[in-house]
Amino acid sequence: MARLLADLTPLRVSPAYRRLWIGNSLSAVGTQLTLVAVSLEVFHLTGSSLAVGMLGAFALVPLVVAGLYGGAVADHVDRRKLALASSAVLWLTAVLIAAQAWLGLESVGVLYVLVAIHSGASGINQPTRGAIIPALVGLKLLPAANALNMMTFSVAMMVGPLFAGVLVAQVGYAWTYSVDVVTFLAALYAVWRLPSLPPQRLDGAGSAGSAGARRRVGWGSVVEGFRFLGSRPNLRMTFIADIVAMATAFPRALLPAIGAVVLGGGEAAVGILLAAMALGAFLTGLFSGPLTRIVRHGAAVYWAIVAWGLSVAGFGVVVSLAARAGASGGESQHYLWAAAAFLALAGCADSISSVFRNTILQSATPDHLRGRLQGVFIVVVAGGPRVGEMLTGGAAELLTEPVTLMAGGVLCVLGVSALMRWQPGFLKYDSRHPVP
User: Which residue, 94, 210, 214, 328, shows the most beta carbons closer than 10 Å to its own?
Assistant: First the structure.
């Protein structure tokens, strides 16, 4: 049984990683509390779903810009200092969000600006932390460390929204935001305790080392990262495969209509469906022991994305059956739990894909480029689902939700299989000999 559970070796052997993981675990829940509570407050102030949706626009643009540029900065400065500075901005933004609630400003514009600042700081903080992990645990323990990180994220995605609704209803927005202010201090402390992590520079021969002239940070550094990515097929495939999976078969935009109309469960049904995906990711992290013994990481990514597509298609089949039956009452509950089961499988598959894609990226990228590639990873992870929401939402207007889900799942499987035929070397990627 112990071989099935998450490998805790990174927590045992690296005190710095242990502090960072505990800090992230606490702060991630608080961050989710704030993100959900902000959307609830915006809707409370405006009564407009469009106004709530604009939060995504204000968050996405700074995340993309800061993610790409911040990754370049992380390759040129002490990563501890950059992580500490961006974490401080995140904490101060949480303080300001709480302050506006305590002062009763009730300004949607202020919330938009603060969300944009928070997202921009996150765009710098996330790739910097991603680039730090290999230095704390070593390449061999990266799969275990990434599985533990994924478990933390999935728990936050389950617990955060649930607690946010309860706290807002019971104690109001100000106290809810204040929880984030307090819990984020743990993450701030963990980053402060990190050792110095100065950048590796290229020597005259083009290899990484401590010597060499310092290069200026700029968009030229970002372009350099993209050029490296474009010439490294295995690294490139980790991004393209995920974009195909998210663009063709990301179901989140369809869940409100499915939960409220097709399954007849209203907001509670939508909550169950969302929680099911997070539960699948959490269980993957909890029972991630076998993942750490897999060395064919490219093949693992491929089969995980195939499983994602088939799970989404299966979800579509259940929704189609429910729509045809016009299920109500107890019968609708059967369809709801069947739908939730497929989404849990989808969450599990997506989590496995993320663990191995991130591990390939961290282990096969030279340290002096790791921040930039982590920045691209953050942008793809954040932007891919947004593209998927737009495409599946538009397709559902023409094809209905069940058909969109089934067609999207099939297209996902066909698309990622076509990618493997185009780049068959990715299936042979071996973590013991990481080749970018």
Answer: 94
